[in-house]
């Protein structure tokens, strides 16, 4: 026999899924976190989704990007708001299975490096693939590499980008906005020395951006600094101090 409480939960879950597309579930989770609301229902909605069905519904990169960026940021904000001490053991935090689907549990590392970075090693500077790639990873990951994710993922550190609420139909414009905003605050050019100081993100994920040439091209496209092949890239130290609730203004 199904209890009344269990039946109510099932009905709520069915209503929730009929009211929002799969690609919006992550955004709803993130919005609940920002508002300080109970996220139990949001997590239950995720826990009802079989990963194969999710892979079928997220059938293009715009949907994959919006869903996984929102989920990643929601998990980080939720966990570190309520359990800040977890941040003291970063390797354990990022490798813990914190997102649960019906038949699959994922870590933040799985989402970032397996799905969003398309099976690239966490430590390979963007040039080395993950050794073991499972079936779920092949079917859930992006079809094409997207370096702008690094200006959208917030791991809880002071130096991380601000958090946006991503939507599939606006994802390209939103990633452009997030990238430009981050670079405006972060990239500092000295014409006297022909050096540009940038986030250490560009060093850790160098290959994601296409190396030095790609990094300079990205900066020139967004800030028009006139960087050239002789411009030296200087990577500033990353501030790992914990900072939650770093949301983009007006978002």
Structural commentary:
It contains 11 helices and 5 strands; from the N terminus they run H-H-H-H-H-H-E-E-H-H-H-E-E-H-H-E. Helix 2 (22-35) packs antiparallel against helix 3, helix 2 (22-35) runs parallel beside helix 5 (61-82) and helix 5 (61-82) runs antiparallel to helix 7 (108-116). Helix content is 48%, strand content 7%. The chain has helices at residues 4-19, 22-35, 40-47, 51-57, 61-82, 90-95, 108-116, 135-140, 171-186, 201-204, 211-223; strands at residues 97-100, 105-107, 188-190, 195-198, 232-235. The model is unreliable at 16-20 (pLDDT under 50). By secondary structure, it is mostly helical. Strand 3 and strand 4 (195-198) form a beta hairpin.
Question: Would you summarize the structure shown here?
Answer:
With 251 residues, the chain is mostly helical. It is built from 11 helices and 5 strands. It is globular.
Please write out the topology:
Layout: H1 4-19, H2 22-35, H3 40-47, H4 51-57, H5 61-82, H6 90-95, E1 97-100, E2 105-107, H7 108-116, H8 135-140, H9 171-186, E3 188-190, E4 195-198, H10 201-204, H11 211-223, E5 232-235
Parallel strand pairs: 4-5
Antiparallel strand pairs: 1-2, 3-4
Helix pairs in contact: 2-3, 2-5, 5-7
Helix percent reads: 40-55%
Low-confidence stretches: 16-20
Major beta sheet summary: 3 strands, mixed
Output the structural class.
Answer: mainly alpha
Enumerate how many helices there are, as a single number: 11
Tell me, what's the shape?
A: globular
N- and C-termini, Cα separation? 45 Å
Report mean pLDDT, rounded to a whole number.
92
Which value, in Å, is the CA radius of gyration?
A: 19 Å
What pattern of helices and strands is seen along the backbone? HHHHHHEEHHHEEHHE
Extended strand count? 5
Strand content: 5-15%
Strand order of the largest sheet: 3-4-5
């Amino acid at each position: 026999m199904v209890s009344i409480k269990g039946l109510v939960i099932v009905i709520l879950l069915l209503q929730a899924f009929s009211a929002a597309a799969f690609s919006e579930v992550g955004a709803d989770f993130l919005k609940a976190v920002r508002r300080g609301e109970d996220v139990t229902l949001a997590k239950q909605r995720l826990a009802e989704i079989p990963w194969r069905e999710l892979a079928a519904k997220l059938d293009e990169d715009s949907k994959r990007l919006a869903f996984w960026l929102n989920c990643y940021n929601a998990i980080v904000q939720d966990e570190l708001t309520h359990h800040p001490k977890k941040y003291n053991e970063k390797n354990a935090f990022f490798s813990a299975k914190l997102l649960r689907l019906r038949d699959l549990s994922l870590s933040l590392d799985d989402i970032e490096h397996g799905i969003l970075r398309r099976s690239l090693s966490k430590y390979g500077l963007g040039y080395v693939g993950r050794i073991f790639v499972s079936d779920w990873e092949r079917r859930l990951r992006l079809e094409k590499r997207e370096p702008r994710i690094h200006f959208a993922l917030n791991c809880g550190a002071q130096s991380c980008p601000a958090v946006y609420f991503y939507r599939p139909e606006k994802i390209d414009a939103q990633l452009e906005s997030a990238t430009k905003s981050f670079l405006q605050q972060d990239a500092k050019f000295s014409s006297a020395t022909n050096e540009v100081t940038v986030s250490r993100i560009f060093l850790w994920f160098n290959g994601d951006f296409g190396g030095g040439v790609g990094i300079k091209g990205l900066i020139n496209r967004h800030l028009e600094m006139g960087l050239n092949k002789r411009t030296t890239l200087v990577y500033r130290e990353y501030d790992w101090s914990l900072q939650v609730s770093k949301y983009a203004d007006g978002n």
